[in-house]
Every structure is written in structure tokens, then in C-alpha cells.
């Protein structure tokens, strides 16, 4: 996976190279890390899988049910949930791999599961960025947003295909270099990178996984928040609060992992070569990677359930599916009082 185990997807080392003391980690004994990972990782992967499957599955069901009412924000949210589900589908395989330290699913499944994992990983990042840019256009550049709305179908389809295309492009090297290696301890699903491809992978992850998202979010939200603050909307404070939550949550969930990836990059260049550093890096990767993975469970909450419009659709759907349990839940209906002054603020706060 992305980190120190199962699959070497954004390339750090696989379980075999960590725990069997081969490659750049030799000759240190990392059996403690291995024993810890065999218990810790499957447990956490299972929790992330179940919670993320429920949350993102509900998002997809609700948006599919009300597909005729979807705007660009909803389409982005649908594809974000789809990306998270692709990512989540790979976790049971990695959980088994972590528990047994052996890949039993064959070479084809090694590449297929890696493809799900990588497409979900990058797709989630890129659709979060697209949603951020959409908020920026709707809030700061209303006229541009109106232009896009007139061509919403064609523009939306083009943007969605473009996001998936660049996600596939970013994932291809890892997918192509994935293969099953038969070693004395069993089969390993890992990547065999020629030349300096491993270093390229480290830099790709840091740039696409943290630097680019934080840059785009910082630029966009630095314009969105003052614009919302200037609006005469009673709901602007809730919208601003949500913006800050989005930035803070992304930073907290992704920064520790990317810091560890950068330290792996330095290690690959010949720094921090002591056994203590190796042990600490491997242990840190297990913790930070799991924190990053759990972000796909948080996405449905911060991007969907905190948004007034979507939350209304969720409650309405749950009332239909489970009338006994959710019959007392109240739904909100947004009714702007003045078209000129409240049209933009209503649209913005309801999609957030």
C-alpha cells in the first residue's frame, strides 16, 4: 500500500522488504513492527472499511435517488464518494495481506486491487479540489458560474472525465510496476521500480497529496471567506465555519503522513540510516497511514451531512426507507426572501 506494508503503491517498501530485512532496511530486525502491524493494521482497516462503506454508500444512494436535481457540487460529491468506495474496496485485501504477510490472490488481483486503491486515492484528492474550485467560482465569480451553469451538462461531463483521466495518469506507474514476487516466506504484492522511479513516486505523492491541495484550498478559501463575510446572510457564519473545518481536517489528516513520506524520501537518499530511525519510520507510517485512510470516512460528514441541502435529502430518504426510526426528523426548506440579495448566499450555503 501507500505505506510500509502490503503494497508499495506510492512507493515505500512492501511488507517483505520491511519485515524480512531486505533492500534498504537491512540488516535491522523489524519483527516488533511486523508483530504490531499484523494486529493493528487489519483491525483499523476493517473499521475504516465498514464506516466508510456505510457513509459513502449512503451518499451514492441519496444522490442517485435525486439525480434529476443534481448540480455541479452534487456531481462532484457523487464522484468523491465513488472514489472513496473504490479505495475502500481494496482495504479487505490489504487487511488480509497485513495479517498473514503473504499475498494469496494472484498477480492479476495484485494489479487490480492496486488500481482500485490508487484510483480511489488520487480521485478523492482531485474531486476535493474540483469541489473547492466550484465553491470559489460560485462565491467569488458569480458571472463565470452562471456561464458554466448554462452549459452545465457538457462542462460537468468534461470535468468529471478529466478528473478521472488525471487520476488514472497519476496511478499508472504504480499499477504498471505492481507484480507478485515469490520469496522464501511466501508471495508478495509489491512494486519493482526501475531507476529513479521510486524517488519520483515519493515526490509525486508529496506534491499531489499535500502541496497542491493545500495551495489550491488556501488560495480559493482566502477569497471565499471574505466574500461570504461581506454577504448579508444569516447563514454566512455556518458556511465560513464549514470552510475552516474543511481546511483544518484536511491538514490534520494528511500532513503527518506526507511528513513521514518525505522522511522515507530522505532515507532513500542515504539519510537517517540507523536501525532506530528505520524502526521509528515504519511505526510512524502505520499510524499516519491509517489516519490518512480514515479521511474517506470523514468525507461524507464534512462534504455531505454538514451541508444543509444534502442533509435535507438524506433525512427525506431515511424517512422513506425507515419511517419508524426517522419519522420525527425535521427537514429544512430554504426560502429566500429577496432574489437579488439572497440568491447567491442561499445557493452557496445550501450546497456547502
List keywords for this structure.
mainly alpha; Rhopdopsin 7-helix transmembrane proteins; 76% helix; 3% strand; disordered N terminus
Question: How would you describe this structure to a colleague?
Answer:
It is found in: Cell membrane; Early endosome. It is a multi-pass membrane protein. It comes from Pygocentrus nattereri. Pfam families: 7tm_1. The protein has 352 residues and is mainly alpha-helical. The protein has one domain: Rhopdopsin 7-helix transmembrane proteins (Up-down Bundle). It has a two-stranded antiparallel sheet. Strand 1 and strand 2 form a beta hairpin. The radius of gyration is 22 Å and the shape is globular. The chain starts with 14 loop residues before the first helix and ends with a helix.
Spans of at least 5 consecutive residues with low confidence: 2-26, 333-352
Alpha plus pi helix count: 13
Helix-strand topology string: HHHHHHEEHHHHHHH
In CATH, what is the homologous superfamily? Rhodopsin 7-helix transmembrane proteins
CATH architectural group: Up-down Bundle
For the report, how would you describe the main beta sheet?
A: 2 strands, antiparallel
Q: How many beta-strand elements? A: 2
**Which descriptor suits the 3D outline?**
globular
Tell me the distance between the termini: 32 Å
Strand order of the largest sheet: 1-2
The percent range for helix content is over 70%
Q: Classify the beta-strand content into a percent band.
A: under 5%
Structural class, from secondary structure content? mainly alpha
**CATH topology description:** Rhopdopsin 7-helix transmembrane proteins
CATH uppermost class: Mainly Alpha
Q: How would you state the average pLDDT, rounded? A: 77
Q: What is the count of distinct domains?
A: 1
Computed CA radius of gyration, to the nearest angstrom: 22 Å
Amino acid at each position: 500500500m501507500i505505506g510500509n506494508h502490503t503494497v508499495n503503491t506510492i512507493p515505500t517498501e512492501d511488507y517483505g522488504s520491511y519485515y524480512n530485512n531486505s533492500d534498504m532496511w537491512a540488516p535491522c530486525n523489524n519483527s516488533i513492527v511486523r508483530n504490531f502491524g499484523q494486529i493493528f493494521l487489519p483491525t483499523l482497516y476493517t473499521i475504516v472499511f465498514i464506516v466508510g462503506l456505510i457513509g459513502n454508500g449512503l451518499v451514492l444512494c441519496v444522490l442517485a435517488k435525486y439525480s434529476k436535481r443534481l448540480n455541479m457540487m452534487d456531481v462532484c460529491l457523487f464522484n468523491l464518494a465513488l472514489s472513496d468506495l473504490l479505495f475502500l474496496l481494496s482495504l479487505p485485501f490489504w487487511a488480509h495481506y497485513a495479517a498473514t504477510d503473504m499475498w494469496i490472490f494472484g498477480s492479476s488481483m495484485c494489479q487490480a486491487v492496486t488500481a482500485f486503491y490508487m484510483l480511489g486515492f488520487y480521485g478523492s484528492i482531485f474531486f476535493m479540489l474540483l469541489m473547492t474550485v466550484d465553491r470559489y467560482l460560485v462565491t467569488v465569480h458569480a458571472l463565470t458560474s452562471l456561464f458554466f451553469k448554462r452549459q452545465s451538462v457538457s462542462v460537468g461531463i468534461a470535468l468529471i472525465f478529466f478528473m478521472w483521466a488525471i487520476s488514472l495518469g497519476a496511478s499508472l506507474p504504480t499499477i504498471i510496476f505492481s507484480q507478485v514476487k515469490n520469496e522464501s516466506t511466501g508471495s508478495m504484492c509489491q512494486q519493482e521500480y526501475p531507476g529513479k522511479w521510486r524517488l519520483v513516486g515519493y515526490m509525486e505523492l508529496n506534491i499531489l497529496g499535500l502541496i497542491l491541495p493545500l495551495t489550491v484550498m488556501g488560495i480559493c478559501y482566502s477569497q471565499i471567506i471574505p466574500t461570504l463575510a461581506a454577504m448579508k446572510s444569516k447563514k454566512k457564519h455556518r458556511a465560513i465555519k464549514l470552510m475552516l473545518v474543511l481546511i483544518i481536517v484536511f491538514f490534520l489528516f494528511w500532513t503527518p503522513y506526507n511528513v513521514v513520506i518525505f522522511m522515507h524520501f530522505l532515507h532513500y537518499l542515504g539519510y537517517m540510516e540507523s536501525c532506530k530511525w528505520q524502526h521509528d519510520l515504519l511505526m510512524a507510517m502505520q499510524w499516519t497511514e491509517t489516519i490518512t485512510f480514515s479521511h474517506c470516512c470523514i468525507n461524507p460528514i464534512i462534504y455531505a451531512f454538514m451541508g444543509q441541502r444534502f442533509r435535507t435529502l438524506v433525512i427525506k430518504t431515511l424517512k422513506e426507507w425507515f419511517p419508524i426510526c426517522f419519522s420525527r426528523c425535521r427537514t429544512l426548506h430554504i426560502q429566500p426572501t429577496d432574489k437579488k440579495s439572497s440568491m447567491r448566499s442561499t445557493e452557496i450555503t445550501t450546497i456547502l
